[in-house]
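Human: Respectfully, please carefully check these tokens:
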Amino acid sequence: MSTDHRRPYWVLAALSGALSIILGAFGAHALGHRLSAEMLNAYQTGVHYQMWQTIALMGLLAGWNSEELPRLTLGCWIIGTLLFSGSLYLLALTNLMPFAFVTPVGGTLLIIGWLTLAWAWWRK
């Protein structure tokens, strides 16, 4: 019986999906009247990007053999989502501008992840 190397990624994707729903509901119900429109929009952007990347991660895991997974893509997406969405959540909740400087780093990692996926498909 072989070990499926995708298992930790599936667990992470499931947790990320659940967290997206929790944070989205929290934003809609608890933060709607407490944040400025700009900060609420930043928060919602974080939720949307996290959910889209979670769905992309699940698609990648379902479509690739465990041994051939493009791990660079996975790493870029996971770290990129954490930095991008996480910094937007923190920015919206704290209004501390230093968090805004982390967001483009996360976005760049997301882009690199998509480009490495294109490269992996090209080579396959």
Remarks:
- The chain has a mean pLDDT of 93.
- The chain is about 80% helix and 0% strand.
